[in-house]
Amino acid sequence: MLTVSVAAQNKMLSSKQLMTRGLYPQATMRGFQFVGNTNQIAYIQDTVLYMGNPGKAKARLALSVLNKAMVASGEESLSYFPPCTIINDKEFRFKANGKVLLYNMNKKTLSVVAQYPTKDANNLDMEETNYKSAYTHGNNLYIADGSKVFPIESPDQDIVFGQSVHRNEFGIQKGTFWSPKGNFLAFYRMDQSMVTDYPLVNTTARIAREQPFKYPMAGMKSHEVTVGIYDASQRSILYLDTRRDESSVSERENYLTNISWDPNEEYVYIAKVNREQNRMWLERYYAGDGEFDTVLFVESNSRYVEPCDPMTFVPGHPDQFLWFSLRDGYKHLYLYNTDGEMLRQVTKGNYEVQGIIGFDEKGENVFVYANKESAIGLAAYRVNLATGLMTLLTPAKGTHSVVINPKGTMLIDVYSSVENPGCAKVLDIKKGKTLATLFQLENPLAEYAMPKIEMGSIKAADGVTDLYYRLITPPNRKPGEKYPTLVYVYGGPHSQLVTDTWLGGANLYFLFLAQHGYVVFTVDNRGTDNRGFEFESCTHRQLGTIEMADQMEGVRFLQSLPYVDQNRMGVEGWSFGGFMTITMKLAHPEIFKVGCAGGPVIDWKWYEIMYGERYMDMPQENPDGYAKASLLGKAKDLQGRLLVIHGAEDNTVVWQNSIEFIDACIKAGKQVDYFIYPHHEHNVRGYDRIHLYEKMFDYYETFLK
Question: What is the mean pLDDT of residues 273-292?
């Protein structure tokens, strides 16, 4: 158990400050990188570019000097020093005013490398070899090479080119993929014509206007995706033969994920997942004609498979690649050759490798992030591809982000921890020592009355598994006094709220509540991320059951604390956490006096196919599981106070969920409080979020305190 108590003053946070960036740690240094193939570092501090040896970097260029060159070249001046790529100790490249510009610091000259569109251009994707660009406008895709633009235009509103597909599941964040040398572009084509239109309403118009969007609900028809290849030299398009049988609906509904190019641009690789999401085929296609070549290997699981990372080729070995898999129970790296033969499992153990940073100069070692030292932290490691020898590179506790030099001998380490607001150091990998400390941030809340933050673990409902919690208690807590307590919950897949970062991952809102006399508790139950496949997937086909059992173990822990008022306990959460909030409130009215649920899933049949069917299967396949998880039939159990909040234009958890729950409460004769945020989607953003915080705080002050 770790308890953090920062030396405190007496200032109190106001609700108007809860979105203030300056009350979170702010580093004035940014853009850390190494200079070319040297051991010199570069970074931007305020409006100045610094370069030099670690700890001895000097001002190399001021924004005012760069702006003189901008104006002299007919460009608009810049209000801040732009993110840049350092090429060598003389030149760097940056983007501004719709152009890629090259600045020579010795000659003080500026040249245009390439131009790209800015007006009406979305999803801009620029390749770094010849600076061709791909971008979308509406449903159309445009590919620009200098002044030449190749359009791929949609025939109607239901066909979408070059954008993310499958509702951004499977790690998909974009819809265009340049080949390594920029000679080809792979892109998604999504046909949504068969997906039901879901109505959203824009009420700002004189007569409210319908704004339908495509929302494939669990058990209903999904969209159909193909992958196109644009040949830059021929200015032509072909499509990969990803369907063995065009007439098969199941073939057309396969998920095409994790698109990769081989280093020689000869092949395109796709991790194809069936709609049932229990089987994945890693397939290879010829880029030249789109023909299917082979299946390298297949992964299957009775619960689900979820590839989220494209293959990574080993430098200097175009016939070898690394692949992430949870097949042994944890997310690890496997080395394959391009014949589909597994050469070896590279990492092993009861921890998860969470990302690849890069390789050393010879391609003998891979650098990765993993939580081997701590389940709530993240460290950088070097792993030898031949032996699997794993070396910790960032020994300081906390959560790390690093930049490694091309030779793989030095790194810049930026990290924070529960008690450390932020630090940056340059480390010598070979010698294992610190070469320089670039910054150590001060506590931005030093003048405020600081709550205590305790990090620890309890056992899950199975009596075996460790669950990690964060407990925030009021400053200057008085002996013998009992305090109202709020359980803040998310609890769903791909989440981890309790982390070894500044304040344990808490935000100012939680500190504000604690300053006003509340205990705020969060525990990551089974079903959340970064703890292995069994930990995450044990909730399959029964969302809400195991999660609630674990959350109630957290409640039992709270009830053992002498300062927790067991008669004044509340629960709060958003999205999956909104689902959990109402689930817990209805199941345990004797425990929770108050609940506040935002954007809640009420019945999983109203959620999207990709996420919903992965964790619950189709409603037709799992009727009992859907019925048990549904909150509609449980509205009759509502006691005490429940505030339900929803964004009126929510396109993630559609408004239908909470509306039908309110209707169920009315039919059951139960009073429920309801609040809508007009014109907001799934999250309440911008200054309106202050209103949200005040709304919830006032609710607790009225009904919980």
Answer: 98
Active site positions, annotated: 575, 650, 682
Residue 1, pLDDT > 90, answer no
β-pair partners for 94: 84, 101
In the prediction, which pLDDT does 16 show? 97
* Residue type at 202 in one-letter notation: N
Question: 22, exposed or middle or buried, with CB in 10 Å at 0-12, 13-18, 19+?
Answer: exposed
CA–CA separation, 292 vs 271, rounded Å?
13
The answer to whether 459 touches 465, Cβ cutoff 8 Å, is yes
Least confident window among 45-54, 122-131, 410-419, 536-545: 122-131
> What pTM value is reported for the model?
0.96
Separation CA 668–CA 478 (nearest Å): 42
How wide is the angle at C-alpha 360 spanned by C-alphas 357 and 366, nearest 5°?
50
Of 291, 285, 226, the C-alpha closest to 261 is: 285
**Measured between alpha carbons, how far is 22 from 14 in angstroms, rounded to an integer?**
14
- Cβ atoms of residues 532 and 430 within 8 Å: no
> What is residue 470's three-state secondary structure?
strand
The pLDDT tens digits of the residues spanning 115-144 come to 888 778 899 999 989 999 999 999 999 999
Instruction: Catalogue all structural domains in the chain, each as residue range(s) with its CATH number.
Output: 2-23+444-703 (3.40.50.1820), 29-111 (no CATH), 128-310 (2.140.10.30)
The order of strands in the sheet holding 255-261 is 255-261, 267-273, 279-286, 292-300
List the one residue out of 343, 299, 298 whose CA is nearest residue 319: 343
Would you place residue 146 in the very low, low, confident or very high pLDDT band (cuts 50, 70, 90)? confident
Alpha helices, DSSP H only, in 29-85? 63-72
Nearest to 489 by CA among 523, 449, 534, 448: 523
Tell me the DSSP string of 109-141: EEEEEEE---TT-EEEEE-TTT--EEEEETTEE
Q: Closest Cα partner for 516 from 476, 479, 554, 555?
A: 476
